[in-house]
């Protein structure tokens, strides 16, 4: 699997920057999801995520004309990957607190994405065997599938709750009608 499109829809420097920025923004969104999901304010982690969404893409935009994009990647990817860990921890703690199996599996999927991203980073540095494959291409669909299952289960629970409310409302209307 290739990380870059063979026929990009924009010119290479912009595509290079866009790929890097999307990596920053996707980790930022995972972190904000974890904060929102847990319901526990985490201002320090939130500020780190905001910095991740703005500062590395800005530095990358400045680095492209100077040819420093490889150096930016080498120095920032470990930080980007490391910021997934608090999101995994927050999500797993909340999933265990709620006792919901789909949420625990979602936390494990986030952890698998972290491991895959770290593996792929090592592969890109040449530390892993060159014949090895990129793992993130396999971990991301599993994460998306797990997130989809979680969202569908929430939809089913919400629909069931609306049905219960409707039945309760119908019973209350019938009771009031009898009283009149």
List the helices and strands and how they pair.
Elements: H1 12-38, H2 43-63, H3 69-82, H4 84-98, H5 101-125, H6 136-179
Helix pairs in contact: 1-2, 1-3, 1-4, 2-3, 3-5, 4-5, 5-6
Question: How is this structure best described in words?
Answer:
This protein has 180 residues and is an all-alpha fold. The protein has helices at residues 12-38, 43-63, 69-82, 84-98, 101-125, 136-179. α2 (43-63) runs antiparallel to α3 and α3 (69-82) packs antiparallel against α5 (101-125). The protein is elongated, with a radius of gyration of 22 Å. The N and C termini lie far apart (71 Å).
Q: Which features would summarize this protein structure in a list?
A:
single chain; mainly alpha
In the predicted model, the low-confidence regions spanning at least 5 consecutive residues are: none
The coarse silhouette is elongated
Compressed to H and E, one letter per element, the order equals: HHHHHH
Mean pLDDT over the residues: 88
Q: Kindly state the percentage of residues in helix.
A: over 70%
Main β-sheet description: none
Strand-pairing-aware structural class: mainly alpha
Query: Compute the gyration radius: what is it?
Result: 22 Å
Share of residues in strands: under 5%
- Number of strand segments: 0
CA(first)-CA(last) distance: 71 Å
Specify the number of helices. Answer: 6
Concise account of the structure shown:
The protein has 180 residues and is mainly alpha-helical.
